[in-house]
């Protein structure tokens, strides 16, 4: 038996111990990338839950690596070490979307969040 449980626009994820989550910022938690809707802080030995908006939509953010160009059409990656969006692939950065409005003078971009399904890449397949 199966049934629809939500529209898939958000997901409840676990915040690990010793972590601070700020509402309105992007995070990668439990394998999901999205925008936190509330602030949560955990201490040693404690976890919590937070809702991430992961809807395929256009988002505005200044949570970026400001040295990157972020031109319209550039691929956008999440750097889980710096907790910033970047245009640099590699080093384990996860592809999360594409720039729709280039970086402005205030270091703000607009981007379309891509699907949450991450495919395994087989280097032997073209």
Extended strand count: 11
> What's the order of the H and E elements?
EEEEEEEEEEE
Shape: globular
The proportion of residues forming helix, as a percent range, comes to: under 10%
Largest sheet: 5 strands, antiparallel
Report the C-alpha radius of gyration, rounded.
Answer: 16 Å
Overall pLDDT: 92
SS-based class: mainly beta
Question: Could you explain the architecture of this structure?
Answer:
By secondary structure, the chain is mainly beta. The protein has no helices and 11 strands.
Question: Which short descriptors sum up this protein?
Answer:
five-stranded antiparallel sheet; 126 residues; 40% strand; four-stranded antiparallel sheet; mainly beta
Short description:
This protein is an all-beta fold and 126 residues long. It has strands at residues 10-15, 20-21, 26-29, 32-36, 40-41, 48-53, 58-61, 75-79, 84-86, 94-101, 109-113.
Topology of helices and strands:
Layout: E1 10-15, E2 20-21, E3 26-29, E4 32-36, E5 40-41, E6 48-53, E7 58-61, E8 75-79, E9 84-86, E10 94-101, E11 109-113
């Amino acid at each position: 038996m199966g049934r629809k449980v939500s529209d898939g626009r958000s997901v409840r994820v676990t915040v690990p111990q010793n972590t601070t989550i700020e509402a309105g910022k992007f995070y990668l938690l439990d394998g999901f990338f999205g925008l936190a809707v509330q602030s949560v802080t955990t201490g040693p030995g404690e976890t919590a839950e937070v809702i991430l908006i992961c809807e395929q939509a256009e988002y505005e953010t200044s949570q970026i690596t400001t040295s990157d160009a972020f031109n319209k059409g550039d691929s956008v990656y999440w750097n889980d070490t710096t907790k910033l969006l970047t245009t640099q692939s590699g080093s384990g950065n996860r592809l999360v979307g594409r720039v729709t409005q280039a970086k402005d003078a205030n270091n703000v971009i607009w981007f379309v969040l891509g699907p949450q399904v991450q495919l395994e890449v087989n280097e032997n397949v073209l």
